[in-house]
């Protein structure tokens, strides 16, 4: 092997505390090194050109660059050596900036350390092998999970670009949280007026197949070739026949049920269409509310249905589809605010959540757009908003800022004065977080034009006195306790990942955090990708977001999906596990531990052997560390390559 | 209040409060929940959250000479509702210990009552309410407060005239003695 | 029900201002089959003043009582008084820190040998007897009586340390009294502070804080308050007259210990529950108890209670 | 005496500390520490692995029996593994391995494993500083016959 | 011996159903048996069971994969079988297990030491294992060795003298002892420094014959051992203690959570190196951390091939 070594000065970033020349000089004497030099900026265009020229001039078969972190520029230099005609894996990096020059002040030890890191890289490179990505065909169809605004956007963008899209929504209608909102900030335009047309587009698009009231049963396969089983939950209504006329709802005798869409304000019939603009506009029977299913004689809906769509015998149905990429857009749920005993833990009717307030404000909501106290139906004159409920509260395990509550609270304070001109709103806040176009101005308007009284401090207790609620808080700017008698208290409850997110993440094999949010591939550079190839994220399932941000992410995830499926064949990362068939004794330990089910048992002339599904293998190397005889090796990180690095340090 | 020189805060004081209370004061983000729920706030010169802020800035003298640290009733509202799980009441306790050790007056009557109470325990092993009241009244010169209660209490036979003296009162007195002796050696809480 | 014996610590007020609490607790426990053994020659826990002065001193005073309880060979230490409970509890918790324990041992010169647990008599009855078990033993149900249970600030808070009932909305006393037939009001100020030990040095504080509690209970139509803390009882009952004049409101609200009312419902005699020790006259409230007689039992002659 | 002392003069002689870091979290954490210029002792040499689950305890055994004075393994925090489960397996295997060391006569403090995320630059600085201090307090490890000596670097550093 | 005869009956009954029955038969000398493979009824006559039946019959099982075999097992042998089953290295339907109460096997080293003044074990003219003692006639003299004094160490601490599971069982179940890891405790009375020197000295005798590995019933790599492979290349061929000890650590780590403590590695070592100790250390660690003892349940997943999200027993370093 002929190795070339390039030691980067990185201007003075490295050269100030590492004797770069000496490192290069020493590297020149290392095994199989035929050329070693230093470079001012190895990653600059002349720097890369110099590497390319050296490869050709000295007929190098491998290159070591000692510069910054491989997490920074490994990809850059791999492309460089590839341009020079080498396989991109015939390249190693020694990190002498982040791990040497930036963390040590003395040139002496720094230089020794740099030399050793270069030696380790050289020793590893000597064992590197050319790796060639495998090509695999891809299904040009995308699955979008979740029909909120992010999922709708992703579906429409993909479909517009010519991709087949399957959209799965667990609720009877798409629309998500946005469909429950009355107005949107900071423009105060009507939520359903701007979302409605998009929902209709989904329903009418020839390339979008919508499975509403459905869930993901299982996911198998890998990027380009996922196989997904969808469970269509029994609606007990034949949707092909249902016209959405609503006669059944009118006639249903079981009317006093929990109204999910209206967040428990008002009540719903056992057979229901959640809201007038629902897509699809089809009825669903909730078995737990239906008299027929409770063993009572009923069947009134069936009797009145003009199309004979009611079917109490309907069963869940499983549908299997093939897709090439998956966008998860499962949104969020409100955190459990009933843990707050000091706010009544749900015991006081006039303490409600912000989402309930949205339904109250909505003209299509249970109160017809009138603000009323749930306890007695009176119009409240004094409304207290408490922000940061289940947000920024480590004591209940919700340390993060939910991000959108400051803005929707300002909107709700504005709407309150709009609905009830002689009302007074009080907003208890800790900080106002309003970094968005027109956002801060909006919170000012709430105060200046709509007279909302903002009080800087948390609320310690809410309790009833007479038919009022006493709210005891602090005004920390004033340095005093404050008390206000409220008719209605609205809690700006923060969000958390959808309660079903963890289960879905397990099926998709993507990571999630303790709050139920999916983990993106990189917090800055891969915000809509995951570490499972072919699975992308959009909207609040990755972390809480407002509408414009969710829509942007929907488009971003669509762009990623389109880029992935723009080719007929996909390349897979060749840094995967490889089985040495001769050495494998078929003990199956690797199969047991593989987190991705990327290894299976295969029969080789009557003997059982491990077989790696290269497209599924993510290259973690757990199997490699598990196999006692080392018959399964992770390419580019084989035992011998790691041992070479260890020995480079310990043995001359 | 004097203007505060930010760079001149007493960091030893911050550290001492943290070690003796076992709490991390930098966790306080000034939401004001402690203040909001504090039943004694109306008697304070600084609200609880301001005391926390003063500690964060190392304002030792202001904190230790404040009325607030003496008027806290240890009701635990602040600790219970602190979103950051800070045992605020314990921090106030610790400040009171420091205030006493450093010889700040604090709320005189509160301090005198505590002294009288402990004196009673020291003498008898148990607290003797009537004797305690007498001592407190002498110390505080508030001879006629609560006199209206006496008839009720006497009528209901709730105030034994003679203190109950336990057998182990020497042992209890020993605890106080060793405490007084060792006071220079330890900080009252965790070392 | 467990046949266990518990080390019982009545606390100083039990032999003075809250004699009725101590006696009714003992009588109630006996009637419910709970065996209490007095901690021999116990001393004061130091109450709030001790931990206002120093945590190690406070813990040492409690540790001495735990050491005394070891003479009984018992690990479970119960007390009716929340303030004593809090100090004992804190002592046990803080002594998990070896440095702190060493200092306490230096003060007491009696290192503890056993692993102690401390809890309130209320917790004991609630968890061991349970409201269901209690209901079976009720002889004179408290039907017709509308009560507000007031727990005080120390009994359940903070929840992460006291580990009993709900820290914001405790229900144990409510459930027990309901089992005894009383009607319980959803009293929102269950855990608000009454002013505690500030009664003597700062009567104004108590007037304001206890006043708010009395006022709300009255406005909700309570016949009486029920408490589990000697200090609360003293502030709310003994000082009620002072409070009335301070807040210029005219309420007469008897303040019972829950043990007295449960004792009454179990049919315990007056000399065991000592209702006459209450300063605010309880008779108008007690008169509201509707006597529902089983049809086949002839009515008892009224007026048994000696005046 | 190691070479670094001859180069740097005053500082304590460097000891041989090997780090096995997962690419996604801890290696990133070490990078973050570098970007933040969090000064650290220079003894540690980092080997980059994809995942802490790739760490065969035998890499550590090999290092410790053949001349390393200390070995540090660091991965993603439990639940945050890039590969979902790798660090869970690593935790068990590394803990079991650590308990073997005293039986071999190797001070178990010569090997530690921990979790550092890509954002925890300061934590990384703290871990490296404390671990290096720990190894220095234990001094150079005894070498077995057949294990290489450390004089060789003198030549290369010239 | 009644048990031996009962076992023979069971073996005879099973022979028609299986390809082979593995037990023990006459060995190289009178004191020690050899593994014995019975296929025909007449071979059953020479079957032996008792203190001389030291070898672990499970060693041969993986080779018989695909065939039906019956195995006579001591308690320790049965644990190896259970472990092989737990790892799905053999199929349950292919093995029949014949258990019996094991009273412990003899340690040839201990016997040799007792006989040393009189001669070599091979020179024994007659040897009879009784209930409590071994009677050896050598050079015309009868020597009586109490069994308790010549029993293998592993038998003195054996918790499972009976097969942990079996299809057939001969005789009455025997009582076991508690294993308190006293052997490790003894090692641990030494300082760390001395332990290091101890291994240095012990391993210097190693001749790299790999008899330890070959005797291990759970060493499933067999012909593919990393000790002799170039890719991966873990060990050099250099004759240094460090490579020799690294091999022992390798073997021990490969067995972590799997080793049943049958002790065949140590028995097989011609240099008398206490190689079992390292495996015992790992067994103790695994037992302490995960409450797992290998080879007790054919259904349990080995603890290092699984995990828990919260490991309550692992106390991580607090930095």
Quick recap of the structure?
With 307 residues, chain C is α/β, with parallel strands linked by helices. Chain C contains 14 helices and eight strands.
Describe this structure as you would to a colleague.
The complex is a heteropentamer of chains A (about 650), B (about 190), C (about 300), D (about 160) and E (about 325). Chain A is of the alpha/beta class and about 650 residues long. In chain A, strand 21 (about 380-390), helix 11 (about 405-420) and strand 22 (about 425-430) form a beta-alpha-beta unit. In chain A, helix 1 (about 20-25) packs parallel to helix 5 (about 105-125), helix 10 (about 355-360) runs parallel beside helix 11 and helix 11 (about 405-420) runs parallel beside helix 12 (about 440-450). The longest helix of chain A is centred in the first third of the chain and has 19 residues, at about 105-125. The two termini of chain A are about 20 Å apart. The model of chain A has no long low-confidence stretch (mean pLDDT about 95). By secondary structure, chain B is mostly helical. Chain B folds into two domains: about 10-100, no CATH class; about 110-185, no CATH class. In chain B, about 55% of the residues lie in helices and about 0% in strands. The two termini of chain B are about 35 Å apart. Chain C has about 300 residues and is of the alpha/beta class. Chain C folds into two domains: about 5-120, Glutathione S-transferase Yfyf (Class Pi), Chain A, domain 2 (Up-down Bundle); about 130-285, Rossmann fold (3-Layer(aba) Sandwich), CATH 3.40.50. Chain C has helices at about 20-30, 45-55, 55-70, 80-95, 100-110, 120-135, 160, 170-180, 205-220, 230-240, 240-245, 260-265, 270-275, 285; strands at about 5-10, 35-40, 75-80, 115-120, 145-150, 185, 225, 255. A four-stranded parallel beta sheet of chain C has the order 2-1-3-4, sandwiched between helices. In chain C, helix 2 crosses helix 3 (about 55-70). Chain E has about 325 residues and is of the alpha/beta class. Chain E folds into three domains: about 1-105 and about 160-180, no CATH class; about 110-150, Nuclear Transport Factor 2, Chain: A (Roll); about 180-320, no CATH class. Chain E contains eleven helices and eight strands. In chain E, strand 5 (about 125-130) and strand 6 form a beta hairpin.
